[in-house]
Amino acid sequence: MAKELIRCPWCMKDEHDKQYHDEEWGVPVHDDAKHFEFIVLDTFQAGLSWRTILHKRENFRKAFDQFNYKKIAKYDDAKMEKLMLDAGIIRNKLKIKATVTNAQAFLKIQKEFGSFDTYIWSFIKHKTIDHKLQTHVNVPATSAESDLISKDLYKRGFKFVGSTIIYAYMQAAGLINDHRVDCFRYKQVKK
Question: Given 3.40.50.2300, 3.10.20.30, 3.40.190.290, 1.10.340.30, which CATH number is that of 14-190?
């Protein structure tokens, strides 16, 4: 009889969550397109459950041109109005507009730093923060690093990048390893 893998408890209610946990969550990202995708998804997650966003992820991918930030940066009012009619995504005008604004600011960061990846990892000296969590009780929603990144992103023109959203993004993109130490993914992600 095969032994059941130990996972972080938050992913055990839903197959989408489990797959996301097992394949993506916490894996260090070094691809600008993937960074932008996670920023978009976390922007739309503000005030909602991650499960809601995860279930609509493919709809977001189609609606937002495969998360192509170069295309999104050029969206006009007509395109944004079309997105407001798309029942497959979260139809929030402020978040849609923020996605366009964020794409434009993302491009400016790439131009200044060579890549968004270089910029974002510099906040943590290019090394994943490992919280060595024993439990998921009282996991912080923010950190000194997410506060700092949030302030800098706002200064650079980003929207919907509060410290809580940035902390969630950092977890997703592997800047923070918040897998529990007994989770089978903890050591895999750490490598």
Answer: 1.10.340.30
